[in-house]
Amino acid sequence: MASSSFTTAFTTQEGEYQPTGTGTNPRRSLHRYQSAALRRNTIRLPSRHSITKLNPDGVVEEEEEEEEEVEAPVTPRETINEENDRDWTPVQANFPLEEDEAYPFLDSITAMRAIKGYVHDENLIPTTTYSFLVSTSLGNMTNIVNALVLTLQVASYIAVSVSVLDFRNDDEYNPFKFPPNVTSSVRATQLLSLVYSILVQESIVNALYTFRNGFDEEELRRSFPECATHGLKARWYICLCFILTMGCYAQFLTFVMIMQSEDVLGVLLNYAAVNFIATIDDRFFYLGKRGWLGKQVERNVRLIGLADNPNPPPIWYRRLFHSLFMLVLFAGLIGMWGLVVSLQTTGAYLPNTIRVEFDDQVHPALGTFSGYYDIQHSGEGGMFRSAHAMYYERRSQQALFSYCPQIGAWTFQWGVSVNEFDPCNWHARSSATIEFDITTTATSKWFAKNPGGRTVPMPFIDIHGWSCTEDEKLCGLHGTCEQGACQCEEGFFGDECEFPRPCNTLEVDGRMGDFRGIDRKWSEQFELLRFGNETAIVYDRPVYITQTDSLRLSQPQQQGEFDMIFFTGRRWALAFSRAFQDPEFAEDLESYLARFHAHFSNFKAGFLSEPVGDIKSNPSPEGLVWYSSEPSKPSTGPGIQAAAPQQSQGVLLCTECNNNTNPCLYDGICLEGHSNTCNCSQGSAGGLCEVPPIGNGRCDTFFNTVGFDRDGGDCCRGTCISTAEAICGRDPSGFLDTGFFNCQSDDPIPSETVRGEPFAEAGRQFALSGTGSVMAAVMNDGELGLFDQVGAQWIQREMLGTCLVTAITMATGPFSSNPIFQPPAVIVVSCKGITSLRAYFCTDDGCSIHTLEGPPEAYSDLFGDSLGISTNGDVIAVSSRGAPYQGGFVEIFRAGRDSRGSVAWERNNETIIPEKYRYDEEDNFAVPVVFTLGLSNASFPMSAAGPINGSIDSTQAPSLGPDKEFILSTLPVPSTAPSSEPTEQPSASFEPSAFPSSEPSIEPSAFPTASPNQLILAMSLSGSGDTLALVLSDVSALQIVTVLVYQFNGTDWTTRGHPIEDTLCSDNHPRTDMIELSEDGSTLLYSTGDEVHVVDWNAEADEWARREADVLQSEVDLLRDPERNCSIDSVTLSPEGNIVALNIRVPSDENNIATFAWTNSTWERREEIMVRGSPEGPLALSQGGSELAVGLPLVAADLSGSIQTYEYPPLPCQSDEIYFRLTFTIKPEVTRWTLETASPDGEIFNFGGGPYYFPNFPGAKEASETHHDKATVIEDLCLPTVALDCGILMIYPTEFGGFSVISSDGGPPINVPPRDIPAALTYGNCTNQSLVQPYSNDL
């Protein structure tokens, strides 16, 4: 339609003027105005207007003027066409556009629209970017922008479509997922939004206008000189079809998204979202007009905007066409809106039936109302008046779901009728909601009133729609759909007839226990209840009953007493027949069960099962946990009681065997086809042979498989629990330790954890016995615990009061516990700030304490840094770390007998002072550094502490360079006896050659001087007590360390082999657990913090040789954190020297424990998954690495600390050896044993042991504390494979347990009954061997 007003703007020096005016369009033709313009080179537009001016003060000034003409210069069309016939059109001739010339009037968008409206208002093609397809060639930059806009808009439509249209929706009544109903305000907003979307629809109208006008190639070529002539008509049709399609799809999405909205804001947002996508092309068209997309795009936009239809139809025609189109579109949308509203108000989008699963924790009655609920409409709704539906329980018709508008929530109540109820008088309610579909509330919180009337949140509720149809095969091909429910065929049951016939017989699982009542014994066997050929069903589950063989339950006069198992909606119930108080129960049981409701029926259950969560699971009560029921209360009504917290041991299983689906257990034979019962074997029992002889504390190799849970854990120390029937790891008598050599596990098995008190950091100091069955640990400051391991349990024997412990060590000898004996133990601790040790000697009678005084010259803050003890407890070694004011040294204590005949440890001035070494690069080993003091025959009082100047003569130490000055610090000698009289101070003389030798001469009255500044960082004593290893360093260079080994030859400690020099990872790394010797002292393990080394003593070469160090180190490097310095916190070595355990900081910034086993030629990891460690956590290994103890002082959140032990498969011997374990009980003073074996070539091997005293020292026979009556002894032997040709074992056992020999070759143990005379056990063919004959009983 032509416009009668226009606006133009221009700028002057005085301010901005905005002329506005209104004129009358004379409705002349375009040709007439073009001709007039050409004659006077201007366009005159009559208008009455006013001038509005803003003065500098911001005041608006208006001035009325007369009607005048606004002239716009034009250029004759002929002139333009002569210059460039393809670049200009007749319209452009009237309104020229030059790139370098500004026309403010024409550049004004408002003015251009005014002129265009005055001339005509109908475009030749739609003003959108998609018209670029017509106005220019395909290869033009403009069509690239067109392609970008097309891609963006189509992608946006696809994204929205995927979001709002669920193409997988199989709901034929609601394919677009419209909400079941909406509120009146939302419905009104939907209607208004749809009306508005029709009024602003432009794309469809413009496309239809252009289609109506038809294709005019001549006019298109005149208006758009750059358009390609080839395929112009096809592009014109494609352009219009695409615009029309996009408009229609936008209108469709608008309708769907508006109708999917459930609130007013959602309606508006959805409409705005689609409208934004629909106008993307218009937005880009506007950007092109403003010149933001380049000159080419701007030019095409101007051309499209100024290209008018030369032959428009009359105005009345256009108005009629537009009105008719809008009317048709409006009618269609309103019709679809009315259809959706009608379906919503009639409940077509709501489920006709819902399946509800109630939880019964808040109120026990709620669980009984689980089941089906059918819809019933209130009839109060209308088009603009929404109402919620109601759902009644199908089973009783006395419970329903409804909506309470006062609280704005769905409610549930029972005990109501269809016509009389108050929806706001509820027993359970949803959270506040306006949802019309109750199934959506299942994901929000529901509340219920408990029996006391208090509102409590419900932990669980499930509400979902359910229906079956004849087309949908929801009844599992085993039933028919009748009135929205499946009627199952005989032999099938369940909501969808998905379960085959239930098990005919149930029995209490003999592995678990039975149902124990206070006043009666409950049945252990149950059978399916049938009435004729029909199975009794309650709550869609079968009913089980006892004593049905001789009863016709439809005749009450013949009924006896019985127990019955039935479902109550949430739990299975076990009830006695006399617990049903309804008269109908005794009159007609079949009818009673058909109408049974667990809330409205009057009965009392004896036991209730755990809640059954999923209606698809637990079609029978097999495998459920059962609980006793609470006593009935008058306030709860006649229905079911609540489940009590007391768990019953009874668990039911189906005893109807089937070789495929329910086979007999433990190799039992199913008599399928006959009685369908099991014929049990292997000593098992029960209806399915389900009770095996496992979990009784005794390892049964037949059941030692994964399927039997490794004999219930009986075959592994870490999982075995002793019972009254057997003690873990013992023979039937309990006196022979048979061990756990049948334990089969690829991973370490954790035993029971020994835990400390909060903030105790237990696990920093502990010691493990060689057998792995005794442990001593510091549990808190001043508390020392002694524990014995029996199976997986650590049993506390003693908790001793002690000092603040610095170090701990322990020895127990080759003993194991039995029913009347506990292994003796010697526990030695050093105390902070004290120069004495405390030794605890613990036997069956308790623990005695012994104080071991250190040398008087020792300093309290240095003494006791490391401790070691021999296996037989007779040798104790203690180190003094050393400092700048005193060098490190080691003191030896040996066991003996005191004047009272008790055990005592004495210090006989047996002091080891290591020499100071330097590294000789030429000889490649460390040599002692000998100093020659430049003080010939000088003397000074030793009590005078202070510096003395001197020099170093380097003639005997050339690597030190020329003579050096030095200062010697002296310290006063502490007085042993206080006296007021002055005493003569001793003096010390220094000869030029004076220096401590490697075998120091010890005088009882003098303490030798240690090497200056030398430190002992760590120490280890071998189990034999005759080898000592030290890690030495200097105060000035802590990282440079020397490993020095001493051996005791009976009188003196001498160095063994050349010292080993190495470098620590850091000055702060030195730890007392960085070195360890094997039992015999022939293998040494030490760590530098980043590296681990294992060296063996080579007697022939008289030196220490590394054992495949590169292999072990490469394995460690794969595990440790490469970014962390000092990533190995602690190490340990098994007594035989073949297992290494490392506490490693891994890349995840945690500590893990890795163990490695030596297999004759290389090191191998023993576990795939490392166990957890702790910073500053020590380690310990038992014989053969069968037990690993890990200190965890810093793992627990409360810093209580703990010690965790793990069981590993024992590897005490190498592959060319056979392991033998000899276990027996002893008589004091007399028990001995010998074993002689011979190889085929006649080589003889001898082994022996006994008599057994602990601690073992000269004179122990007379010390009563070392006698251990009725003790169990374990001896581990590694016999060469070649020595198994024959052998004779002789032993003098006692009357308690006899003896047992166990071999690692897989054969059964050899058990010999108790004997009081020497017993000889011969194996192999020894006729050609010169073996010693059995000795007499004179021992």
UniProtKB/TrEMBL annotation:
UniProt superkingdom: Eukaryota
Keyword entries, A-Z: Disulfide bond, EGF-like domain, Membrane, Transmembrane, Transmembrane helix
Intrachain S-S bonds: C680-C689
Positions of region (Disordered) = 1-30, 49-81, 970-1008
- List, as start-end ranges, the regions of compositional bias called Polar residues: 13-27, 972-985
Whether Acetylation counts among this entry's keywords is no
Q: Cite the record's Low complexity compositional bias ranges.
A: 1-12, 986-1008
This protein's name: EGF-like domain-containing protein
Organism field = Seminavis robusta
